[in-house]
Amino acid sequence: xxxxxxxxxxxxxxxxxxxxxxxxxxxxxxxxxxxxxxxxxxxxxxxxxxxxxxxxxxxxxxxxxxxxxxxxxxxxxxxxxxxxxxxxxxxxxxxxxxxxxxxxxxxxxxxxxxxxxxxxxxxxxxxxxxxxxxxxxxxxxxxxxxxxxxxxxxxxxxxxxxxxxxxxxxxxxxxxxxxxxxxxxxxxxxxxxxxxxxxxxxxxxxxxxxxxxxxxxx
Length: 218
What we know:
Blueprint: E1 5-7, E2 17-19, E3 35-38, E4 44-50, H1 52-57, E5 62-68, E6 82-87, E7 90-94, H2 100-110, E8 123-125, H3 137-146, E9 153-157, H4 161-171, H5 173-181, E10 195-199, E11 203-208, E12 211-217
Parallel strand pairs: 1-5, 7-8, 8-9, 9-10
Antiparallel strand pairs: 2-3, 3-4, 4-12, 5-6, 6-7, 11-12
């Protein structure tokens, strides 16, 4: 199956690979279609597999947008590593390098993908916890909250992810308190600054609305 994907502005070759799911991988149905997303030197490889029927209903199935392909090098032509996997009207972010929210906003505008608007960014998968893949997490956690994301950010990653997200919330506690209890308190989504974290060493990490995501240690 061909998986449509787009790149935004990075001038050099991406480390993202998109391919059909190997025949040996478990599928949610015999005729399931899937995409393999490998980001850099992963600890976890993530497989996104929609049911064939759901793919049709979702208006084209999986789409992949490369938001950034950078490394720790301060290269002004490359944004931090991050990939958006789109399915139906939902977006799933894989890794959160520098600039992830603004890159998603640019993709929403350039490719007419409403699911990449800031207030729709509610799910992220982390392949590993290197800084260049995670320094965008505070932005992904807090900016969409300020821009009216309706609920918490759901985060799936390897061991240590929960500690990292707790540290981010603690580091920005003064800002959070000002926004909750200051002159303009947030009333519509007061808990959306929080992270709902799941740590995994592999296996199925998400099953919803016909989409299955499987993490595999590599």
